[in-house]
Amino acid sequence: EDGLAAWLRYARVDNAKACLGKLPSSIVTLNATKGLPVYTAGQELAQGIQGFFGKKLDIDEHDERGKPRNNRPGKKSNAVTVGTVAAYKASNPREAAKVPELGDDGFYLSVSRGNALILGQNERGALYGAFRWLALLGQGNCSDFTLASTPDAPIRWVNQWDNLQDGGTHGSVERGYGGDSIFFWDGYVRPDLTRAGQYARLLASIGLNAVVVNNVNADPRTLTPELLDGLARIADEFRPYGVQLAMALNFASPQTLGGLDTFDPLEDKVQAWWDNITNEIYRRIPDMAGYLVKANSEGQPGPMTYNRTLADGANMFGRSLKPHGGIILFRAFVYNHQTLNQTLDWKADRARAAVDYFDGLDGKFLDNVVVQIKYGPIDFQVREPVSPLFAHLVKTPTAIELQITQEYLGQQAHLVYLAPMWKELLDFDLRVDGKESRTKDIISGKRFNRKLGGYAGVVNVGTNTTWLGSHLAMSNLYAYGRLAWDPEVTSEGILREWIALTFSDDRKVIDVITRMSMLSWPTYENYTGNLGVQTLTDILLGHYGPNPGSQDGNPWGQWTRADSDSIGMDRTVWNGTGFAGQYPPEIAAQYEHIETTPDNLLLWFHHVPYTHVLKSGKTVIQHFYDAHYAGAAVAQTFPTLWQSLRGRRGIDKERYEHVLYRLNYQAGHALVWRDSVNNFYFNKSSIPDELGRVGNHPYRIEAEAMTLDGYVPYDVSPFEAASGTK
Ligand code: BDP
């Protein structure tokens, strides 16, 4: 098992025999066309049932009037029928009338005594229904049931930060930790796109419906004819799975690629250039989903270059896409990384940027523009409050941007199961107009009565057979899809299902991996930066190991403002940057005061002495020391827990070794984290650890004390990240 099949292994289930009598004996597809989702659904059902139970089913294709296309003799009675509601109506109007109303992409699934009916509101809905049933069968659940399910939000997209070419500072997938791009190589679309199709299959199986295939830091060359032809080939690989292709654009393309003397969004020739290129794209890819644009952010060009508003910029794309039914996801991640400087301006605060820049723009966007907002106001940290921008855009559809690739969260070398964090963010009640306003209901469109909205997940899979670089990290992709479909499912429920399908439904396997995974986010938070101080990682380069000293004094501005006696970013209105005031009044009031701010966000909102006493009765500094020790201690238990699964069903040698290697590494790196962060704050504050642990590690063998052939000691910067500076 190399991970390529992920949760779609279709491995034999434990009680296969018990199910045999309850399974259909054939598959009927309604009006299926090869290369489209209903056809794919038939194939998946055959493959899945054969894999799970060893039972081979024939596929009978029925035409648009419900008549068999291939009249096989000896037709069996029990069948699983799969198709769209419309196709079912044509052959079976009376039964079809009983099917409950479904929303876009929804499905109806009814299993009864060896017969199954899987109907989609559209073609891909049928495929989603087939995959849902297969997920249940794969857990050994072959009981009768009826289910009608419509996704909570229409936008369930994946963002890939793939570069056309290798040689960027981070290789060919920006913030990707699973190898090179599966789409691009050497400036072109790869000749062999097998992996693109396999990826689409995984995404469809969890209800995801579009992929932005190139980096948000977009290369204008994406729009050259050769590249567009290549993108059309990717779209062809996606189509059988109902996954649509979308593209990230570089705002300055009319100038850099098109040779115009401007990219001002209000110039007619610029609009005409985009209209034309958009037509060119749709000529090749008629079902293209739309665009994603990062503008005026981290050096990227945008409308503000010409003193135009962000709405002027977004609407320009909206206009070009409109005749084709496409949508534009315009990112809210707008901030000026050059002028933000805390040393010059005490009130400078990157967290404020999104609301400040979008202020006054609500209602000014065309109806096919969606604002894509990172979950927190800064940047994918281990704990952030929900972005207040969700509460400001009432007339404008929004999507939440989550990160499946663990950029600041251990880069897949650390186990961090993210569903519990996402659920907290999605469940958070922003109290807009004093009414219940949960993030999930804002983005789905329910709260403000909008049609569009949803989810964008930065996934960044690569050519590695494990997709993300780690087998266990795949639970995050699985959870992302399941939550985008239905944010009510529980983190633990998702996990148990994913484990059963990825490894096996062996009770112990499920329990142990669930336990480790559910512990993993709080554990990582504990050893990398707690109390809302953010992940104390290196900020200027890789965003990986500990480097608390790099957090302050640079314009990228994820600041802790730690000095010798106090720490935390004062974001209050009365004395700080005013960020707390960007929330609706009830929430603003809560964050404004130390007493009502939850401890886990204390240092996000307030600047306090190290000796400040928390609700728990501990001082901030002692909590820091203790939490880093506690987190690192839990990480030490992961390898042992995993080892208890050795030889269990589904835990094959290849994956066992791969996972064990990473967990051992994590256990070690957690100690490095613990000691660097603790030493750093000990050096700053000079307040000793009550338990005498910090700065005192008698059991450790220091690297500089070893005699090793071929190794040379050198000075490490920052020195706290090393032992004795070496
Ligand atoms: C930061 C990443 C950077 C991205 C940027 C973004 O470090 O690689 O380009 O976000 O989301 O987190 O645009």
From TrEMBL:
Record carries keyword Nucleotide-binding: no
Q: Which residues form the Glycosyl hydrolase family 67 C-terminal domain?
A: 469-693
Q: Where is the Glycosyl hydrolase family 67 catalytic domain?
A: 142-467
The entry's keywords = Carbohydrate metabolism, Glycosidase, Hydrolase, Polysaccharide degradation, Signal, Xylan degradation
The record's subcellular locations are: Secreted
Q: Which family does it belong to?
A: Belongs to the glycosyl hydrolase 67 family.
Q: What does this protein do?
A: Alpha-glucuronidase involved in the hydrolysis of xylan, a major structural heterogeneous polysaccharide found in plant biomass representing the second most abundant polysaccharide in the biosphere, after cellulose. Releases 4-O-methylglucuronic acid from xylan.
Record's protein name: Alpha-glucuronidase
Organism expressing this protein natively:
Humicola insolens (Soft-rot fungus)
The residues of the intact protein that this chain contains are: 16 to 741 of 857
